[in-house]
Amino acid sequence: MEAKLTFKLNGKTVSIKTDPLRRLLDVLRDDFKLTGVKEGCSEGECGACSVLFNGKIVTSCIIPIGAADGQEIMTIEGVSATEGGKIIVDAFADGGAVQCGFCIPGMVIAAYYLLSNNPDPTEDEIRLGISGNICRCTGYDLIVESIKLAAKRGEKIWKK
Amino acid sequence: MRVNCIINGKNRSFDVDASMRLRELLELNGNIAVRDSDDNEGFCGSDTVLVDGVPVYANLVLAGEVEGCEIRTPDGLADSRHLTVIQQAMIDAGVVQSAYNAPAAALLLTWLLENNPNPSKEEIKDALSGIFIRDAGYEHYYLAVKLAREKMESGEYRTAPAPSFRENLKIVGKPASKIDGPQLVAGEKAFVEDFVDPHSCYMVVLRSPHASAYINSIDTSEAEKVEGVVKILTAYNTPDTHYMQAGQGNPEPSPHDRRLFNLKVRHVGDRVAAVIAETKEAAEQARDLIKVSYEVLPAVFTVEEAMAEGAPLVHNGIVEYRSGAPADLDEYNSKAGDPREGKVIYQFPLHADIHKNIAASNKGGIGDIDKAFREADAVVEHTYQTSQIQHTPLEPHVCFAKMEAGRLVVVASTQVPYHVRRIVGWVTGLPENKIHVIKTRVGGGYGSKQDILVEDLVGYASYVTGKPIYYRNTREEEFIANSTRHPMRVHVKMSGKKDGTITGIFMEVCANTGPYGNHCLTVPMNSCSKTLPLFKCDNMYYDLKVYYTNTPPAGAYQGYGTPKGTYGLMMAMAELSEALGCDYKEMVLKNHVEEGYMLEILKGLGEGREGNVVPVGSCGLREAVLKGCDMIQWGKKEVSDDPDWKIGKGFAMIMQGSGLPGLDHSEAIAKLETDGTVILNSGGADLGTGLDTISAKICSEVLCMPLEKITVVSGDTDSCAFDTGAYASSGTFFSGNASLEAAKLLKSMILKEAAFQLGEKEEDMFLVEPGAVKSKATGKVLTYAELSHTACSGTGHGQMIAHGNFVTAASSVPYGAHFAQVAVNVRTGEIKVQKFYALQDAGTPINPEIALCQMYGAVMKSIGHSLYEDMKLDKNGKCINANMTDYGVPMITEAPEDFKSVLIDVNDDYGPFGAKSISEIACNGAAPAIGMAIHDACGVWLRDWPMTPEKILKGLGKI
After folding, report:
1. Structural domains in chain B?
2. Is B19–A1 a contact, with Cβ atoms under 8 angstroms apart?
3. Which of A1, A17, A117 is the best residue to mutate to test the B interface, defined by the most B CB atoms within 10 Å of its own CB?
4. A79 at the B interface (CB within 8 A)?
5. Tens digit of pLDDT for each residue in A64-118?
6. Are B67 and A20 an interchain contact pair (Cβ–Cβ within 8 Å)?
7. What CA–CA distance (Å, rounded) separates B853 from B849?
8. What is the value of pTM for the model shown?
9. CA–CA separation, B577 vs B570, rounded Å?
10. Does the ipTM surpass 0.85?
């Protein structure tokens, strides 16, 4: 069973003919080679495969690609190319937030969504903002600090 | 995309969206018994189907995945006239009660027995492990399997589903199939959602994100542009009528402290606006576009915060009294705050003080409590704290309303059809003759559907728009914007003599009613009035205060305050027995009340007025205690092979009421139809408890006719007569007695008419099976069919219609004792309920098999609040576990391994055929019984529920 699906991916309109029940995650990684999207738990729990779906965070491992028809998807590749995304990525690097790095694409997506909607979050709000993302290495503290740093560095961008 | 599959043996083909769920596809196919009770969470199992022979949650399967698959749904098993052996066995075992999940359970048991004709208890448990049952408990599911297997093997049951009572009666007190069982277990149209007209509008509610805030403005301009939006309701375009949502007798002992929409929101989840649109999607889209400006205010969440000096006030508006206004009211009102506060209107004084967040209070007692404490050999004083609990009925709060021929029709899942009509009348301004409330089957109530939590808004919305409107709470809304068990702090001081005599009891109750005062006086009062009368004690005093806070609202919940009071009092008694060095059992036997004991303590414990001082009536308390002690081998210390596990035992005395004497009121109308059958219009509201079956059995017994010749129509305000509703354990006692009155009157009309038609004397007439009048004098027999036909022919007296009206000052109290044996792991804190024995005196149990299941179900609910359930709020008052998985209700795997319900045989003088209430009382025993057993096991007194492993380890000093 195949369907022709058209959607916006990182700002560009793309089309694909595929089984609409394939996971969004697999299509992004295998067909579009967007391997920044990671597969962690495969059950929507760990947040490693997070992408923005019409501007909201979803875990791409539990979304059928058919649901993306006519919608707008942003992956870590798209986000980190934006001005705000760059600030977050740099802040993560400078702040020591990255150890093994597997969770980081999802963390960056979560931080980007948070700061876009709440430019000056409290620590509690930051922790809530990344509560859907599991990090096994860092114990989260340096990620939280890095997001604070990104909030400060990108003050003007986030408040736009 | 196209999907081809086989549904219940038929080839089907659908065009589906890639993200469509299998349940939605099945809904399109008309399989209504595949229901959703957890918003696609995959917890409750209402959406269970078989895909290629494997049970799955249809909400968690994409429709596209079933290409080429064979699907079986619960409604595919059989229709209600041709039930399968398993479906019939479920009814006969008594597990088909509110039954929202009964069809899914029938499918699972069918699947189990098809694959494993001789399953073990563990295998049955495993098959049912993914299905949540809140009403009947799980225990009789094992019996249902046993009965089904017996019938499959030998064509008949070899096991009696339940014991029988009263040899002199033919049908009352005997197991018999619940009359609405077939429709429910087969998964046919039964619930509100099954009666929604096609093309009805959908309503969603915008809820407050703040625990306390004034609304500065609401901008609906963008929302109104969404295509399909019909109307948006807010405080700015709805009536200024103050009312309350508690379904209580009028005038209510609850303050009228809310409007349809308020300009001050008082909890996270409070109503801000309602959007009515042609589709759910349009309504949700529009809701997201409503812009609200809030002035956020400080909030209070606990009674301690609410009572603190200078605490933020939950209500600070104008206070009015319908009667009994104090002389200084004007001065009191001069301190009122912002006009957006609204008003608080009392029907009569509740001893409230909103300037101190006090919603209601009461105190009183008998004897000299201080002297008792001074002269005692030991005094204990402790505080017991309870958590906020949600009822979690499988069917959430739901309503369908429409205008029909100039009248408002409200199709409701309610325990109180007549209170719904009255309150919807207040809100819309319609008189009662212009409102028709139709109670459908109720998919779980437990007190939460005693309150008019959605019907007010849906009814009003339909009236102002003229549109048919459907509304259904999400599961999250069930937690945050519904009703819950009042969290309470019960402080008990108790004194005794060395010989075990209890000399004094003081109970101080601080209850948290949340933002509105539904049941604010009466629930906390019940924690005293349904506990203190257990004791023969001359010195007792109670002092209760109820506080407004900004938590999710509290209200009525099965047990109605008594579970908390019982937890405090019985735990304190156990602690006193330890302090006195007395045996707890002996102390219980020495101090409990018995028949004839005058209950002076009740004088001050009326529902906002003077209470009735009455003697104890029929009472099976002592028998329950003695029998239970034998069963659990009280006094014998059990030892585990594993040194980490310590085992202990505990038990608690319990009581409740059977309706509210002098306040509750029930009526029924019995009509003899022209072929000699009977239609009984009962005002009572069967919420799955078997009340309609009780009415039918009573009628059958009185009129000497078979059950199938009696049809009960109930809960319909057009065709039935007034009834206050199913609450306060009144169903059997009040509505049952009304049916008894109607049946007796119809019997006398039948005898009189038969004498007339036969030309004989009335005193020679008597009734014979299966529905005829016989003459002692002549031996002539006139069947009801002949009698009624003649009465309704061109020259007759007309149809025989009897109206029964039941009110009483008599109080029939059920008693009982609940026993627990608990194992505690002293390394991990884990708690296992190994044994639970519930012994209760229900008078004559009219439906014994259903009565037993009500006890199992209630005990499971109370094991839930004792060990697991607790609504957690974050610091802003948002409930952080407002879903089934995180909240954690008990499933079959949490049921006690050895679980028995026992009916103590006592006849009551006032109940119909000697019946008393059965189910609410069964919520009262688990917490104190388990609490005592934990202490007996490991020496720790856990004085706040839920009693969790963490609290055990803290008590043991290990963390």
Report:
1. 2-76 (3.10.20.30), 85-193 (1.10.150.120), 196-297+397-472 (3.90.1170.50), 484-658+811-955 (3.30.365.10), 666-806 (3.30.365.10)
2. no
3. A1
4. no
5. 999 999 999 999 999 999 999 999 999 999 999 999 999 999 999 999 999 999 9
6. no
7. 6
8. 0.94
9. 10
10. no
